[in-house]
Write a structure and sequence with these properties.
This protein is α/β, with parallel strands linked by helices. It has two domains: about 190 residues, Glycogen Phosphorylase B (Rossmann fold), CATH 3.40.50.2000; about 160 residues, 3-Layer(aba) Sandwich (Rossmann fold). Helix content is about 35%, strand content about 20%. The chain contains twelve helices and 16 strands. The strands form three sheets. The chain has an eight-stranded mixed beta sheet, with helices on both faces. A six-stranded parallel beta sheet has the order 11-10-9-12-14-16, sandwiched between helices. The protein is elongated.
Length: about 350
Amino acid sequence: MRVAFVAEVTAQHEDTERTRRLRRIAELLANRGHEITVFCAQWWDGDHGTFEQDDVEYRAVTKDPPGQTPSRRFALSLPGALRRTKPDVIHAATVPKHVLAAKTASKLARAPLVVDWYESPSETIGTSSKSLRMAARTPDEVITPSETIRTRVRELGADGNNVRVIPNNIDMDAIREAQVVEGADIVYSRRLDEDANVESLFLALAEIRDKGWHAVIIGDGPEREGYERQASDLRIDDRVEFTGAQPVEKRIPVFRGAHVYVQTARREAFPTDLLRALACGCVGVVEYHVESSAHELVEQEDRTFRTTSEQELTEALRSAAELPQMTENEEFERYDTDPVLEQYLDCYRDVRDSYGFF
């Protein structure tokens, strides 16, 4: 199958959850033998218009580095570039200008358009409500990582029958083969920005200071110093370790050795590290927030707690400590690479089968 990805900004430009998701699925499809081309702004050196990396071909629609707002030149050049490729499916990132350009290209190339809508619409920068609504209604199918984001897209007018949830995948083999690094009783991991909400965890930890726990905070960001001060002010800094940002291959061994993973962030399209930690056997404690999908991973699972207040979070930590230790949980096998990849392929087949029927 020939799949054309449309993403002016790629993971090589900007390493975010959204860009990593598209890169991951592109590389997994290429590894399966599918012909994958990513139409993007050029990120490699030299005058050549294409570059191959990990069996994925990257094709420069524009040579200028992407700016803070979506490029008009990229949108204007996209239909012609896509038409020459003759893809079976076009898979675009959620940038309204580019989604509309990709729709024009899909008509010219006679290929269905799938849009991966990763973040909550309110986070999309430089777009109007009208353009967001058009982007939600235009694709033949919209993919979201969670029911939370699916609801937001439907609120913009997307047909609910044309919006499906496909979660981020995890590598179960990497989890099974990873070492166990002991030392952390409680782990939190995320970029430490204004939505991290680590203060909720710290307040709960201060309430159980009489217990023998050690907490590890993995991540870095603009709010790190503030959180370090909070831990000091609450007099728990001697039992809270800040490790800074760590690659996934170092986070997984910590998860395997930890007992509890806590997710308190106010905004999360899909909490991949929470999923990894649950698969590593951690007890999951999630504080509910309307713009976070984390609660979706724990609603139907054993060894998990969903909380809505500081008192409930404290009680959940007490209860979690009484559960047995585990280093892996096979219940999360359904999020492994192959099952999730098949969901994408099913989506592509479905839109191909139905494209042009009406």
